[in-house]
Amino acid sequence: MSYARTLRRILFWVAAIPLFLLLLALSIAGFVISTETGLNSLLSLAQRVLPGQLSYNQASGRLIGPLHIEQFHYEDGSLQVALANVDLDWRPAELFDFAVNVTRLHFSGLELSLPPSKKAPPSDEPFTLPNVQLPVAITVADLQGREIRIQPAGVDPIVVNAVDLKVRTQEDGVHIEVLQAQSPLGEVRLSGQVNPIGAYPLQLQLAWKAITPDYGTFDGQGEVSGTVRDQLKLTQRVTGSAVLDLTGEVQQALVEPDWSAQVKLNVADLKPFVPDLAGKPLNVQVDAKGVMARFEGKGEIKATAPEIGPATLRFTAAGDEKAVRLDALKLTATDHPLTLEAKGDFKKDEPSFNASCQWQSQI
Length: 363
Hints:
single chain; mainly beta; Nuclear Transport Factor 2, Chain: A; 2 helices; about 15% helix; elongated
């Protein structure tokens, strides 16, 4: 009897001790993620175990949200991160459904200095698109960043006044509701969908604004659609002191890009670009195609020159990264019975232009 009672006690403690340790661990974890004291304890632990130096001025809230941190700094060699303040709120309960839902992420005063990138060794293997399948669904309902400065190694810094993002991932890819950024040079807005699997199908709408000191403001709007691996189509319209319409197509972009482009440029008044031609228009039309750096194309330019008045220049050309061949060039003037025809070639390694010209009178 005494032996049976002793055995039951042993079995009880064998089962109770692991359960007690589990409950203790859960209690500690709950304390860390659900209290402000636990948050500060976790940050203090990070200061001791991280390889670099971490500091912050104030931290309030809970790890499960909402969370607020001021004057955050981290430095590890040439990598430096500084944040004036950051606010985070999310829904941790959705982790049980394999989802990360960030309802609010606001930050300002981000300064990021990046270490020099390591050069990858050259490879003869053809580049292939990786299949990116996230283990969890991600939703960012409201991301706002202000006063951002990114300093890559060895180049000028990237300054962004503001960035806003709303995005979610699903089985059919990444859905970008809005990605908007503003900088001293202008602003850009992107929306659409991309699926980082297989051929990488995508459909993206792009709108932007560029501010120039001499030529005013330019607004652009267009779309990119197709697949990154097989075929991409691009349309873009730019308005301002000049109007540009561009349509293009790229096939097999990762192997040997086969491309084509059609460009139309209209300038109602050349004064902002060439003051001596104030009040004069310019019309340009170019149709080109090629494979990688090899190209062939034709075009037409209509303009008004001070010496000859309204004129039309038509040309046909071809070339590659080493040379450009002008197969035909014809200049005609509306107010003068003269025609100029020319052809020639230009070699990049030999900075010279060989040409033959012929003037013809149409009287």
